[in-house]
């Protein structure tokens, strides 16, 4: 997060479940603080924030103001935990109206923006996590925006997509955690989908005029750095070929679904991630590329890496190479 990026983070009163706010969400959201200090409340969002993220399409790049609401919701039934969000979910379902109340609470406190993200730590079209009876009211709130972005698994709620989509004036974008096109790894992480499932979903979305955002991991336990980069780029190429409007590259991180194997994850420095970004940028001039920089805290870095973090953050926002940005 750079100084130039305008950012508003909602501060919740006593209902807040975290000691610190969530962080930037241009890629997959991740809590900044993992200590849950109170029981999750269905009448309040986990958190909400405003930030900028890049938009890129055939030579046109813009920074867009985006409001993000992290809804309190039921645990994702897939359970691969690549998002590391299960700890912020409940076992029961929210009552009808609760998710709308959460959105209203956040929007009352957020500034105007062009896009809105509604993340429910799982699948937006999972009726056990977000009741269909709320679709009218949620679509009504979304229609103040140009674009609404939600996350969903390819095998969940196909009919409910249309039900919600029909109520929307805003453009719908669905974020899908493909994670990787490495066949053995994709099966090992328990994603409960194949690359074919992803491809069919992407095609179906395109036929219905729904945009695609893709989350990809960079690295896995016992994978070398060069293989981590190679598979990330192969996966990004595949996502671009399937029409991804935005591709988020997320360095594999401690905790997220890896269990004890986390200790053998490759160490991906800012220099390596900067090279990955530059190579990924060349894949397609239609896909926006971002890299998740959650794990890098400026105050903990040496001066050279503080500069690299700033340059890379700026380069991502402008969708330009770092050299272009640094000169
Ligand atoms: S399918 Fe998505 S939301 Fe569900 S646990 Fe896996 S990464 Fe998280």
What does this entry look like structurally?
The protein is 29% helix and 19% strand. The chain is globular. It has 327 residues and is an alpha/beta fold. It has helices at 98-107, 135-142, 158-165, 183-188, 195-207, 225-241, 270-281, 303-318, 322-326, and strands spanning 8-9, 47-57, 60-70, 115-119, 147-151, 171-179, 211-218, 246-251, 288-291. The chain has a nine-stranded mixed beta sheet. Mean pLDDT is 88; it is low at 1-25 and 31-37. α7 packs parallel to α8. Iron/sulfur cluster binds next to loops.
Which structural traits does this protein have?
single chain; TIM Barrel; 9 helices; about 30% helix; globular; disordered N terminus; binds iron/sulfur cluster
User: Stretches where pLDDT falls below 50 for ≥5 residues?
Assistant: 1-25, 31-37
Helix content: 25-40%
**General form:** globular
What is the H/E string?
Answer: EEEHEHEHEHHEHEHEHH
Q: CATH superfamily, please? A: Aldolase class I
Strand content: 15-25%
User: What is the average of the pLDDT values?
Assistant: 88
User: SS-based structural class?
Assistant: alpha/beta
Total tally of structural domains: 1
- Put simply, the count of helices is 9
Query: How does CATH name the architecture?
Result: Alpha-Beta Barrel
CATH topology: TIM Barrel
Strands, total number: 9
Q: How are strands sequenced across the largest beta sheet?
A: 1-2-3-4-5-6-7-8-9
The main sheet comes to: 9 strands, mixed
Brief summary of the model shown:
With 327 residues, the chain is α/β, with parallel strands linked by helices.
